[in-house]
Automatic annotation (TrEMBL):
It comes from Noviluteimonas lactosilytica. SUPFAM superfamilies: Pentein. InterPro entries: Peptidyl-Arg-deiminase_porph. Signal peptide: none annotated. Keywords: Hydrolase. It comes from the Bacteria. This is Agmatine deiminase family protein.
């Protein structure tokens, strides 16, 4: 059987999210983050369907009411009652391979980013979604290895992009060669591109690639740049941009590079938050990008318009998300066309 890991810009059937509630880490600022989720779903249903995890029937009733009052088309929304610890579906949701006759849902271990947070219910999310009949023509493959969806990027043609820091933090006893062999095998890739630099203050994922650099169609890479020499990120992100400039396509050519602008520092009681424009979500016909109420929002949209020609660029207010150290891509997981019943 042949299998392939599709790129995010390929056709999709839905996007998976989990609704925040009082028993998640959002409890202290639930109203603010609910507004972000409403804006996200309202944007998503213009382009695709949405599968929303809810903890119980009462939460579904509440979420439906909030969405309906904001004139969201609920015919494009499916609710699934399932347990979850938090709402980071990029890392707890399925990494999906296309097969000859359907799909293979790779169910890697989710450990709360190396044991930083309780994650036992999130680790069972894919299994429970499968039990609820969400997926069509799919089988699940449990893999006893910690790997999050936010840690990897593919071009759909056998090239994987990731960061050494994250994979090394999860598996400190494994060398790069052995990690590369396993990633190639499980994800059906024939080459792995590593970034050795790049980090964001306020990021507890140990440098997930989806906060730093993203693959784009036509051999391109969109990445978070920093043009402020006085900023604490400047040296590291400059080194990361050099890493990216040194990468080569399968044909041995440099990638087309799209640097994203740098937002002004966002602080929460003195703590720097990880406001990355690289944490965008690609859906059918559009790119949904995180907006932070910063003048650089418009500049980031212009860069994404060049990197993804022919797609709408839709800004979603995400300032509330970075309080918990993630952003738009982190709370979503695209599901390939044909996967959702």
């Amino acid at each position: 059987m042949t299998e392939r890991f599709p790129a995010e810009w390929e056709p999709q059937s839905a996007v998976l999210i989990a609704w925040p509630h009082a028993d998640t880490d959002w409890a202290d600022r639930l109203g603010d983050v609910e507004d972000t989720y409403i804006a996200l779903v309202k944007a998503l249903v213009r382009y695709t369907r949405v599968v929303i995890c809810v903890a119980d029937e009462d939460l579904q009733t509440y979420a439906e009411a909030r969405l309906r009052s904001n004139r969201v088309d609920l015919s494009r929304v499916r609710f699934v009652e399932v347990e979850y610890d938090d709402t980071w579906c990029r890392d707890s949701g399925p990494i999906t391979l296309r097969t000859d006759d359907g799909f293979n849902l790779l169910d890697f271990r989710f450990t709360g980013w190396g044991g930083k947070f309780e994650a036992s219910r999130d680790d069972r999310l894919i299994e429970n979604l499968e039990a609820h009949g969400v997926f069509d023509r799919a089988h699940r493959t449990p893999i006893d290895f910690a790997l999050e969806g936010g840690a990897i990027e593919t071009d759909g043609a056998g090239t994987l992009l990731t960061t050494w820091k994250c994979l090394h933090e999860r598996h400190p006893d494994a060398d790069r060669a052995s990690l590369e062999t396993r990633l190639k095998d499980w994800l059906r890739q024939d080459r792995v591109l590593w970034l050795d630099h790049g980090y964001l203050e306020g990021d507890d994922t140990d440098a997930h690639i989806d906060t730093l650099a993203r693959l784009a169609p036509n051999d391109a890479i969109v990445f978070q740049a920093c043009d402020d020499p006085s900023d604490s990120h400047y040296a590291e992100l400059r080194a990361m941009s050099d890493d990216i400039a040194a990468l080569r396509t399968r044909d041995g050519k440099p990638y087309t590079l799209y640097p994203l602008p740098w937002a002004q520092p966002v602080l929460d009681e003195g703590r720097r938050l990880a406001a990355s424009y690289a944490n965008f979500l690609i859906v059918d016909g559009a790119v949904l990008m995180p907006a932070y109420g910063d003048p650089a929002d418009a500049q980031a949209a212009a860069v994404l318009e060049k990197a993804f020609p022919g797609r709408d660029i839709v800004q979603v207010p995400c300032r509330s998300l970075i309080w918990q150290n993630g952003s738009l891509h982190c709370i979503t997981m695209q599901l390939p066309q044909g996967l959702v019943r």
